[in-house]
Amino acid sequence: MQSFKPENSKLSAEEKLNLLVEFGARISCELRLDKLLDIIGQQITKMLDVGRCTIYLKDVEKNELWSKIAQGRGLEHTEIRVPLNGNGVISLVARTGETINLPNAYEDPRFSMDVDMVTDFRTHSMLAIPLKNNSGKVLGVFQVANKSDGTAFDKKDEGILLLLATFAGSAIEIAKLYQDVHVAQLETIYRLAVTAEYRDQQDTRAHLKNISIISYLLALALGMSKKDSELIKNASPLHDIGKVALADNILLKPGKLTPEEFEIMKSHTIYGGRILEGAHSKVLKIAHKMACYHHEKWNGSGYPKGLKGEEIPIEARIITVADVFDALCVFRVYKKAWPTDEAYAYILGESGKSFDPHVVAAFKKIYPSVRKLYANISVNQPKPQTADVPAGEKKKLF
């Protein structure tokens, strides 16, 4: 984040006003909760010129308050949890909705030294105020400690922190709602994917987890942003959603499919496209591309449209490598699990044929990490119900 002042210097009234205006502008357009809390914590630290700022939010289900945002030496990226029914300052503020100002923290019985004991930070003075939404419901607690000039927090500090809390309360509540909706969307996607995969996968959850991780790592290795890589990761479980429309006698057939059966099998890409077409969310738009085109091949010999090279959406080119690799490495009713290194060699050998060479090159970069995912998978799994089908001949791999 941009530095607004030299370390330990005083801010003028005009500088504080400018920070306050910027504070309102920045938090009003940030919907990612972790990022929002980080912005709030950094701004409060600068405006009040304190050694530490910690933002606690209620976790009603666990009857706790938690914080991952602690500005100041010793607690960066550390999660702190305190009981909501405890006797400490944070718990009391969260329960009563009242401000607590401790000029000498160690002399007050309400102060807990637990956090100080695991860091090299010593709290001298502390100010804790409730974080409320527009209806007055307490969402959490703002806590600041140690003014840089060594003085105790005064009424002006309390007023500034209360004002910031008023701005922040609504933004945090909106971000939490957005996060809840996002989590619900991902859970729905995952359960739809389980429905599609459950019928012909021995371990559906492992399969979905593996292809999600591989897709994410591939996207990063290809130079995509973390945000875009996350979208690909979250969309990847839906690539085979069209299988819900296939009959069991085809989907679960242990032997090689007849030409007529294979044509029916290929239609799962069409069904998947129909299920996801017209979606408005970014993740479902990506899933639509994956569902339609994850069986297209770089050399144009795939289906359903016989797309070639970069005509195939990059999202589909990524999931193809992830899906084929995982399919080779795990047991299926018609095939035994391949050793990981043999599956890796197959992926490399299909560069420029089945797979985009750039995606294969990215797979080479991430393979050490991918290999660890399969370290505990035994190749001594149950025998297939039919003779092992060679790669490239079976319905669901390619």
UniProtKB/TrEMBL annotation:
SUPFAM superfamilies: GAF domain-like, HD-domain/PDEase-like. SMART domains: GAF (SM00065), HDc (SM00471). InterPro entries: Cyclic_di-GMP/3'3'-cGAMP_PDE, GAF, GAF-like_dom_sf, HD/PDEase_dom, HD_GYP_dom. Residues 181-379 form the HD-GYP domain. This is HD-GYP domain-containing protein. It comes from Candidatus Avelusimicrobium gallicola.
